[in-house]
Each structure stands twice: as C-alpha cells, then as structure tokens.
Amino acid sequence: GQQLNQSPQSMFIQEGEDVSMNCTSSSIFNTWLWYKQDPGEGPVLLIALYKAGELTSNGRLTAQFGITRKDSFLNISASIPSDVGIYFCAGQLAGTYKYIFGTGTRLKVLA
Amino acid sequence: KAGVTQTPRYLIKTRGQQVTLSCSPISGHRSVSWYQQTPGQGLQFLFEYFSETQRNKGNFPGRFSGRQFSNSRSEMNVSTLELGDSALYLCASSPEGILSAGGYEQYFGPGTRLTVT
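Structure tokens for the assembled complex are given below, as produced in the milestone run.
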C-alpha cells in the first residue's frame, strides 16, 4: 500500500528537549494531519493543516505545511514523559478524499 | 460531543470464519473511513463511505467489504478470515467536506483488535 516517508523512525530523548519529525512524498497533498497514538488506542488528532506554508501550533506542538505541498513537519518543544507514543502524519492526496499515512515516529522520553 | 465508537473492542475468530465490525461516527459526520493497522504494514486504507455510498476503496481483496446506513453508522465485514487479517481495525469519521476547499479532518475511534487463530 501507499505510505509517506516519515522520519525519524524512532527517537530517544531527554525530558525537556525539543523534537522534530517530518513526512515527505513525491505526491501533492491538500491537507496534512498529525496524530499521536498510544498503545492499543486509536490515533488522536493533534494538528490539521490546510494551506501550503501554513504554520499551526497546539500548545507545545507546532506543525507546518510544506510550501511545495509535498511535505510537513512537526515540532514538540520541551518534551515531557507523557509525550511518549507514536506520531503519524497523514496527507490527503490532491483531488481525492483519500488519506495516506506515514510509517510513524516512535518517541521515547527519558526522565 | 461523543467521539467515534467502535464495537467490539476485541475479537478472536478462527480461520475461515467471517466477522462484522461496527462504527458509529461523531454526530453530524457523514464520512466514515476504515483502516487496517499492523506492525509490518502500518495504517492501510480500506474504504470510505459518504452518504451510504462507497466513495473510495483501497487495495484489499473482495473479502473485505463495508456498508453505511442512513444514520451514518458503518459496518465492515471480512469473510473467510485468514491469519494475516489479524490487526487493529480503525474507523475514522469526518464532517462533510468540500473537495475543492482542500480537505477535512478525520477523527479515529479506539479500534477493534481482531485476532485470527
């Protein structure tokens, strides 16, 4: 199936550090969504982006819609232990109602 | 507003059996999408329904089917289960979206964990 290239695959960081992750593709997207998933649960929507170049924040999280519409970035500032989980990007392919998901970034925060 | 609900949360079936999973979207949402999540393949799109019509379909065999009712509730059916069908099946709902406007948000339910033995 189709997937976005999401990196890094996993990260181990110290509490208080900032985190960056990104998703890239050769396809063009109309919308980018960023999710966090805890074990055994469904993904929870963190941030939605609708326009190229858009920068949106949700508390300590900031995400940007790449200017080429082929990528997106998520930053987490001053990480805390509850940030642990798997983060997914999802891009809505231009001209479709279909979302393609990234492979996920597994984040572990060391206290 | 209540979130997306899925039933059952856990299911154990035997190879060859069939299974039906249910999803109730957020009130007012008319689009329901289904995904399969496995450690090896990640989140894979199964199909999407809008106003009782299948609008999009992923690359899954015909054993996977779905439907949507007039109240937007959706069911997914898998016939002749195989071991490889063991996965977390996620349902996501969206408000009515205008394609030309560029997109809409998807909200996920907690999933149904299906184990095929």
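Chain A has a mean pLDDT of 93. Chain A touches chain B through 28 residues (CB under 8 Å). Further analysis is deferred to the final report.
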